[in-house]
Amino acid sequence: MTKINTPLQVATAGEALIDLILNSDGRLQPCLGGAVYNLTRALARQGVETLYLNPLSKDRFGRQLAAGLSVDGVHLAVLEPVPQVTSLAVVGVDAQGHPDYSFYREGVADRATSALAMTQACEAAEALSLVCTGALALSPDDADTYLPWLVSQRQAGRTVVIDANLRPSVMPNLDLYRRHVMTALQFADVIKVSDEDLECLALPGANATERAHHLLQNSRASLVALTRGGDGATLLTRHGQVFNAREIDAVAVVDTVGAGDCFLAGLVVAMLENALATDWGAEAVSAALAKELLCNAIASASLNVMRQGCVPPTRGEVKARVAASPFEFSAT
């Protein structure tokens, strides 16, 4: 297979789709979306050389998705568009700006791949140090695609980051879905999860931190990043340290579409900038470094929610917000 000359740092695997956002007047507004697609763009906008592994459709929506990645500097593992149609999601946003989704994903382009194809694409990117997946890629229907690929990435020594980002409303068998998500998370070095994800997984614990601790102890990950919406975020390490951070000043939220994706991008960028080991968190870590990771991730998310839809910030914007915004931080 032809080697990729660009020193790619991160590969992403998962859905790229069109969000059809239901406006107040009943019209559907098409927007580029999908959690992994958003993450991919967010990483590239913050200066990370990023490889997107899934195919895109030759239809009009697929061409728009490809153009959006190209503008942000993302590299495509599959250069030729495929005949399958683009995935669609109908998105409604409530009064608090929180989205709900209905997905249309049978016979679609981003699922027209295999574990072998993604593994070979990663092998061609010799400098690749980290891979990310999650969200709809954690559907049990796609287990034969993503689980063997995750095995191959761990064997290659790359840091594996998985965003639980659960979508229970579109999974016909919730118990099977939960079990499969927990199986997939066993391949993660870093798990990103929201307080809502933890409730959906029905993990034991009186609060989100206790549930996240249970998740960490029942996985092989060294680090769990827990998002709490307006209450900030938490890092839990396998060594037993817990770090909390939040922005002190209120954020003017337009909507929360893509907030978690931009949070994860900010976290991954800070991990790369500090050249963190795959097992960072297995031993005691610096509180200052944990704060840096959290503040970058939170600032990245905050900048996004101040805009309509998912509009990821640049690295310069994130750094400026971290420097200008007061953060509350604690370590235990």
Task: Give a quick precis of the structure.
This protein is 36% helix and 21% strand.
Shape designation:
globular
For the record, the count of structural domains works out to 1
H and E order: EEEHEHEEEHEHEHEHHEEEHHHE
Largest sheet: 10 strands, mixed
> What's the assembly state of these chains?
single chain
Helix/strand structural class: alpha/beta
The CATH architecture designation is 3-Layer(aba) Sandwich
> In what range is the share of β-strand residues?
15-25%
Radius of gyration (Å):
18 Å
Please, could you describe this protein's structure?
Strands 5-4-1-8-9-10-11-12-13-14 form a ten-stranded mixed beta sheet, with helices on both faces. The chain has a four-stranded mixed beta sheet with strand order 3-2-6-7. Helix 3 runs parallel beside helix 4 (143-155) and helix 9 packs across helix 10 (315-324). 36% of the residues lie in helices and 21% in strands. It starts with 9 loop residues before the first strand and ends with a strand. A hairpin with a 5-residue loop joins strand 11 (223-227) and strand 12. 48% of the residues are buried. The protein contains ten helices and 14 strands.
Q: What secondary-structure arrangement, pairings included, does this model have?
A:
Layout: E1 10-13, E2 17-22, E3 28-33, H1 35-45, E4 50-52, H2 60-72, E5 75-76, E6 87-93, E7 99-104, H3 115-124, E8 130-134, H4 143-155, E9 159-163, H5 174-185, E10 190-194, H6 195-200, H7 208-217, E11 223-227, E12 233-237, E13 242-247, H8 259-273, H9 287-305, H10 315-324, E14 327-331
Parallel strand pairs: 1-4, 1-8, 2-6, 4-5, 8-9, 9-10, 10-11
Antiparallel strand pairs: 2-3, 6-7, 11-12, 12-13, 13-14
Helix pairs in contact: 1-8, 3-4, 8-9, 9-10
